[in-house]
Amino acid sequence: MFTYSKKSRRRMHAIPAAIALLVVTLFWLFTDASKAQAETLFSSAELANWSVDCDDCRLEAQYDVMAGDVVRLESREHLALQRSVKEQPIQPQLSWRWSVDRSVDSGPLVRVSVYLQDTDDWPERIIHYVWDSSREAGSHEALSDFEYLIVATGLGSKAERWEEVSADLSADWQKLYNEPLPPLEQLEVALGMPEQDIVAGAFIEKISLTSAQPAPQPQPAIAINE
After folding, report:
1. Cα 222 from chain centre
2. Bigger pLDDT: 118 or 29?
């Protein structure tokens, strides 16, 4: 027969509780981390999921010694790719890196356009994030009541150099319309602006969609007194 002290019995009961708490914490962290992972929407491996509208253009996957797998976009007239968006993060954020060729053309050379679903009060609306080294980064322009341009990469940017962009769609939308962001409809990646022919070339590493909302911090483990 074994005799246990009260201290030993408390420790024996505490061990299963501690193990259960650890398992729950690890499961929560793993689940939260999975939710926080970015979804890659545009990359060399994702090109097959995009529809292409192209005239006198070049579109191909390439390898860059600095960035790795990238997508090359080049056109003397028109090049645009579209893809519908299924995932709807709570506070959607788009992130990407891009680079443009040296070109005689000025104005928006390459863009990532976000199409938002129509609502009871509004038809489909669009935000164009553009590379325009002639304007201040962060500036915006109303092209119509339903269409805005935001300079994602602007003055100070240089051709043939990678630039990083992180666009908080909810925050940008609030500045433009002062209302909650509607669900995402589709993305468009293109050279120049809609209905505009342009001589330009660019590289995009990838476009990722995630949530800009910070993940909740895990609660500290409960201390076990012996």
Report:
1. 37
2. 118
